[in-house]
């Protein structure tokens, strides 16, 4: 199978075309119609074998994650995802694998109202990239730099599930091989003894839920687009709550605090008694790959948003508050550009390390 047959067979008519697609797959470039009152949002993510996923990963899972992690970026900007292009690097053409991957793309793109408008393939180690495009009302895109003192910090959904799911997968692989297995996704390897006790406390349904958090994250697109007129800043939680919040604090030049008890963790982890609350919260703060949203918003705007969006409001949790703005002048107490994110727990306050995952 050649490149052109691949594109014709697996990249044509994927997702929801809609009136905004003037020209899709088949020419040198696609043509889309961006309304004059909208700004165009563009983002790209790449997933590489043995870095972001194992070689035997399910192609439908890969397609799901590729789309949702990208849609999450658009949601974090307060926008609506509209169009995407996909690039694949493959060691060889495998029609059955490609059929499943293409089917997964089509299913999720259709679910999210997204049109796949182009594709490319080349020979090499398994890798996939998706460039996503969306729109937001002109001038209304949510930036990381908009957080204001006294804003409330909120998150969507539950945190820590994806990091726990990765540890479950690593434990299962290690147990199957009878030897240590190198971790992926930036997490340190863990020993079978370290994880065996708490994983054995989980039932099959809980294990399946945690693994799904990692392999099939759900982009919070409805909440993200609804926040454009209300939130002051937003980011998707791809590298852990602590690290991603630091991005907002640095861009906005503010300090902030989090409430230990308020941080929502995945319900399945409540069964893992031997894991302990400290380690569960660590997964939420530093685990990453949850693809939930963290945003800042004034108290009055949050009340208004909750009133207008009663179906979305239960999915949002208040976890902290934005503090003071950084001084424009360096001081002994707080060097220039050094923001502080503190964790409030049992009448004590501890400064959190950013610790966001870095590829290099």
Structural summary, described in words:
The protein has 360 residues and is α+β, with helices and mostly antiparallel strands. The protein folds into two domains: 3-137, PurM-like, N-terminal domain (60s Ribosomal Protein L30, Chain: A), CATH 3.30.1330; 144-351, Phosphoribosyl-aminoimidazole Synthetase, Chain A, domain 2 (Alpha-Beta Complex), CATH 3.90.650. The protein is built from ten helices and 14 strands. The chain has helices spanning 3-10, 59-76, 95-112, 161-177, 192-199, 204-215, 221-226, 241-252, 276-286, 299-308; strands at residues 14-15, 21-23, 31-32, 38-48, 80-90, 115-123, 127-137, 152-156, 233-237, 254-259, 292-297, 316-325, 341-345, 348-351. The chain has a seven-stranded mixed β-sheet with strand order 9-11-8-12-10-13-14, sandwiched between helices. α2 (59-76) runs parallel beside α3 and α4 (161-177) crosses α5. The longest helix is centred in the first third of the chain and has 18 residues, at 59-76. The chain is globular and about 65 Å long. The two termini are 36 Å apart.
